[in-house]
Amino acid sequence: MRGRGLRAAAPLVFGGYMIKFDINAFETPYFVIDEAALIHNLDILADVRARAGCKILLAQKAFSAYHVYPLISRYLDGTCASGLHEAQLAHEYFVGENHVFSPAFTDKEMPELLEMCDHFVFNSFGQWERFRERMDGKNCGIRINPEFSTQGAAIYNPCAPNSRLGVTREHFRADMLDGIKGLHFHTLCQQDAKDLAATFMAAEKAFGEFFGRMKWLNFGGGHHITKEGYNIEMLIQLIKNVSAKYSVEVYLEPGEAIALDAGYLVSEVVDIVQNDMNIAIMDTSAACHMPDVLEMPYRPYIIGSGEADEKAHTYRLGGPSCLAGDIIGDYSFDAPLQIGDRLVFTDMAIYSMVKTNTFNGIKLPSIVLHKANGNMEMLKTFWYDDFKRRL
Ligand SMILES: Cc1ncc(COP(=O)(O)O)c(C=O)c1O
Questions:
Q1: Cα(135)–Cα(130) distance, rounded to whole angstroms?
Q2: Ligand 1 lined by 318 (C-beta under 6 Å)
Q3: pLDDT confidence of residue 3
Q4: Whose C-alpha lies nearest to ligand 1, atom 4?
Q5: For a pLDDT cut of 90, what percent of the chain falls above it?
Q6: Is the pLDDT of residue 9 over 50?
Q7: Ligand 1 mean position to 361 CA, how many Å?
Q8: 337: which residues sit within 8 A by CB, 6+ positions away?
Q9: CB of 200 closer than 6 A to ligand 1?
Q10: CA angle, residues 221, 198, 104, in degrees to nearest 5
Q11: What is the Cα–Cα distance from 89 to 71, expressed in whole angstroms?
Q12: pLDDT value of residue 116
């Protein structure tokens, strides 16, 4: 039954894209980066950048597939890194500005960061004080905490009570702004322009008196710009207003919006067991290959599937690890699943490849590039050594 190709016979349509790749082409599990979908997102972002007159950076934490950095760098201004290694990746593969923010920079990583990065965002005035003498010629900013949030999940809320991320107004040091060229806030997660507008108003209320002294303001990430229905015109207007009012350059640093719906994970049914319901054991793991399914949590879409009991045959899909909670979710299908069937999970480019791990020694999914010209290119395969080297 191997490669029976559960959905291969019918056209695989999702998010306006027809999946044209052969889902039986490679050994599972494997991620597929959809270059055409990526270009679609980049076109939208390039249009925002041009019409708003702002700069847009790739937040590498969401998507670090450096094989496509040369492509992305044709559309965007640069990258933002969460620390030394992301900064290095951008330095090697991305042509553009290299911004770095860390909750706390260390002395030992600073010499390399200084070689590679042009923009440094500090999380406290203590850090700024500690490193400012070494920042000659660098473009430095402070991350502020507007103490305002339009989202609920505490784990994704940098403005939750007692957050360590960003300087609150109470601790802001107006007397230490010499050499500071920008202010940065990041509070959003998968949100619309109206949430940014509300957040900006809160930031302006608390910190607006300093905006005029800055060269740039960075509105962080979490802007769901490439999601259908996002209010792009409102975003553009807001950026134009802010740039004009304060004579600043506005930066956005989305991660998710860049590779939204631009990736898949192809996995195979390895066994089917029963325990008051049908349970399919897959060769992909929620815990190891898509940890956000458990952490966020969220339910990935599988092409051709429905909610539990929506279609004739319902299965709980579980991973091959020992973790009892390694469950992807309950899904229904028109036909019974068979061992060897392949399922295609969508929107698997963002916060997936960057978060995989080898718990239980489980093999990492290979990474395939589905090029805009239709060709499939195997970028990476992983084996025992990848597990062993980490231990
Ligand atoms: C400082 C910062 N910038 C940008 C991002 C990217 O956010 P998103 O991928 O939601 O656009 C994040 C995400 O956590 C972040 O912490």
A1: 10
A2: no
A3: 33
A4: 221
A5: 93
A6: no
A7: 29
A8: 6, 269, 272, 278, 280, 313, 315
A9: no
A10: 40
A11: 15
A12: 98
Q: Is the beta carbon of 141 within 6 A of some atom in ligand 1?
A: no
Q: Which of 253, 260, 296 to mutate to test the pocket of ligand 1 (most atoms within 8 A of CB)?
A: 253
End-to-end Cα distance, the chain: 36
- CB of 348 within 6 A of ligand 1: the answer is no
% of the chain with per-residue pLDDT over 70? 95
Residue 2 — pLDDT band, cuts 50, 70, 90? Answer: very low
Q: What is the mean pLDDT of the chain?
A: 95
The residue nearest atom 9 of ligand 1, judged by CA position, is 255
Ordered alpha helix ranges (H), the chain: 35-52, 69-72, 84-93, 110-116, 125-131, 193-211, 232-246, 256-259, 286-289, 292-295, 384-388
| pLDDT attached to residue 12 | 55
Closest Cα to atom 14, ligand 1: which residue?
A: 221
Indicate if ligand 1 lies below 6 Å from the C-beta of 59: yes
3-state secondary structure at position 288: helix
Give Cβ neighbours of residue 293 (< 8 Å, ≥ 6 apart).
286, 299, 300, 328, 329
pLDDT tens for 127-148 read 999 999 999 999 999 999 999 9
CA of 350 to the centre of ligand 1 (A): 11
Q: What secondary structure does DSSP assign to 325-350, as a single string?
A: T-EEEEEEESS---TT-EEEEES-ST
pLDDT value of position 7:
41
Contact 255 CB / ligand 1 (< 6 Å): yes
